[in-house]
Amino acid sequence: MRTIFAASLAAATLAGRVLAHSPVPVDADDVPVKRRKTLGFGPVHPHATFKQVRQESLAGFAPAPASVEVRDPVEVATEFVRAHLGEETGFVVRKDSYTDRATGVTHVYVRQVVNGIEVADGDINVNVKDGKVFSYGDSFYRGPAPSMYSTAVAPQPHADYCTQLEYQMDVEQTNFEQWLASAEQGEQVQLVRRQFRESVHEPLKRLHSMNCAFVDLPADMAHKSTAAALEDPRHALLQFMVAATPSEEVVQDILAKYDQHLAGMRSTFEAHLVGDLQTMVEVIDNVPDAVNPVKAKLAYIQVPEGGKTVLDLVWKFEVEMKDNWYEAAVSAKAPHRIVSVVDWASDSPFSPVPKEPVERKMATYNVFAWGINDPSVGNRSIEKETYDAIASPLGWHSLPYANDPAESDYMRATKGIKNSTTTWGNNVFAHEDWEGRNAWMYNYRPDAGESMNFNFTYEPKLTNSTDALEEAQKYINATVTQLFYTSNMVHDLYYRYGFDEVSGNFQQHNFGRGGEEGDAVIANAQDGSGYNNANFMTPPDGQNGRCRMYLWNTAMPYRDGDLEAGIVIHELSHGLSTRLTGGPANSGCLGWGESGGMGEGWGDFLATTIRSNKNYSDYAMGAWAANRPQGIRNYVYSLNETVNPSTYKTLDKPGYWGVHAIGEVWAEILWVVSQRLIAKHGYTETLFPPAPLENGTIPEGDFYRPQEYTATGEKKPLVPKHGNSLIVQLVLNGMKLQQCRPSFFDARDAIIQADQVLTGGENYCELWKGFSARGLGPDARVEGRTPWGGGIRTDDYALPKTCLEDVA
């Protein structure tokens, strides 16, 4: 019981620490912190699946002979979906479908349509290569179509979510009391009692209090709404804002002046296209506690009812708030229950290089260089603006006037390339945000002038708590410079592994390569809305991502999260995994449970892989900022099962209900898998591929294997030569293949399939050995899985039969 309690205590403590907001005593080992309010839940989709398509089952979808022109992949996918679903099921092909330039795989995203209305969670993603479908994910509704505007019996996932929190509090309390009864009494027990209260019980209690105070509000206010609610989303929206706002003052104001707020909300209408389906979107202004107008449209969502799945008509909202950016579905008819909610804020041949040269002096930066995770492992040095010419053709400080949001219409229309002398560029807008505001465009940024030499002092001195904040703010120039440098390095690295314009990356200007532009990362340094935190908001492609980094008051002087590369990389990786999973126009695929947990886990894994070196070490996450050697997770990432015992079944333990705890299990599994590939293929000291030649082609160097060709003489995708670069490629390619709302099994299978596409499956057994070593073998299973990650799991350490002869 001692072990269970310790794990439980750590999980809740770390989840609280990651979502911190309030100043805390710096001498506390486990600091009591306040969580950023966030909602995330929705119905389970037991019918959702991710499948590989065998050659013999493809019928008319087999590859065309070499002498026949390969058919359009979107046409192939469309015919496959029709054959798979039957002619009666309506759907549209989304415009964010794209062909991966590196692998040649076309990812086609299909949205279900019933009665001319989108099924918001009815998704099929079809993966096509060489004229054939080789895998697909499917969460389409299969039941009868309801009458035009009928609704299901109002589901209660919000109430179920709150019941789960109450259950979790009871479980944690019982475990603690059992441990306490068997423990030796004394001063140490009193300390642990305080730690439990502050780090486990109180955070859960606060979370329940924040998110569940108005679970009965829809029933209480049902009389306010009428049948006209199907034409007027304001009632549903206003009741959602009561549940969503963290401000008690706003809650009381809405409840006291409900009709006034209702009358004060003004609407305009826009026509949006989803494939060939035109949808009217209502844009609602003057919504209490929203920082921008709210988008609303009618949609269906799939909900459980009496052992089956039915469609419920909902208002689908996009609500941007100060600390949250919600995609919510609320029942269209009263009672207006919250059915699902995703918080977008989460605690190879390439095109030739554009001919326009960068006509300015290249920048230099005094920073912790790429690979130095934090101040505890290295010193600052002068680094050049080593931008990647493929990923950032104009460098890090230049962008067209036409794409600059801070310029006037006249400048956008008449000027060419803007060369900035501040931390403002095509990929990232980095600046201070001491006031914790949503306004950002004119915030302070360091200016290096014509020299482009961003060389600023960073020598924080020991102060008392009264002066600590002021002391940290003295070094804002160094801090913003570091955030800008790290963020651009991440942009360029992920680009070279396939996170490019068509797949939804973050750039103001896309150089005519496709995708939606106007979405560089807004990066806030020393964000004043809290402490001991970091988060990233990922709206769909074409809207700016927002990264907020915080000071950590866990030591004197304060530690600055902007200077710990692993934290920055983790947050930016939320943008990567959200845009790649389910397509760049769908940000609702990693909202909760195993899916949301993997969103956290990929960030930890990639950050750890980037900081690792040839001589193997275990690594902690966030250790420097949190001032804790073991970091901000239950365990450090390690191959040693005594150091990190995590397996798939670990998700059943108390304390593993949150996405951060779920995510560290996924990250640990990937860490074990990566070491298998490194053992086989070796290690490269740099994860950056070679720079392009003048003609835009990529040299193999010591990074890629020799280029291979198909039987028809076409180039195959470039394959990273070493284990650590190969796993990064497979993880990103797997994100593109997997379905929306994936499980651990789906993501595992997608990575294995990514290797099949890239190498012909030569690492099939190495990958299975890595997954099976931590219980995620072919016969691993889960029964009774809930949206919050619950259920009963069974580990499987076996291997597929084809790998048994090669067990190492």
Distinctive features:
Elastase, domain 1, metalloendopeptidase activity, about 800 residues, disordered N terminus, about 15% strand, Nuclear Transport Factor 2, Chain: A, metal-binding, zinc ion binding, 4 domains, six-stranded antiparallel beta sheet, alpha+beta, globular, metalloprotease, about 30% helix, 18 helices, zymogen
Task: Describe it.
The protein has 4 domains: 2-41 and 153-346, no CATH class; 49-138, Nuclear Transport Factor 2, Chain: A, CATH 3.10.450; 364-585, Elastase, domain 1, CATH 3.10.170; 648-806, Orthogonal Bundle (Neutral Protease, domain 2), CATH 1.10.390. The protein is 31% helix and 17% strand. The chain is built from 18 helices and 26 strands. Strand 23 and strand 24 form a beta hairpin. Helix 6 runs antiparallel to helix 7, helix 11 (476-496) crosses helix 12 (565-580) and helix 12 (565-580) packs across helix 13 (593-611). Residues 1-34, 56-68 and 348-356 have low confidence and may be disordered. It is found in: Secreted. Residues 91-140 form the FTP domain. Its EC number is 3.4.24.-. Zn(2+) binds at residues 347, 570, 574, 600.
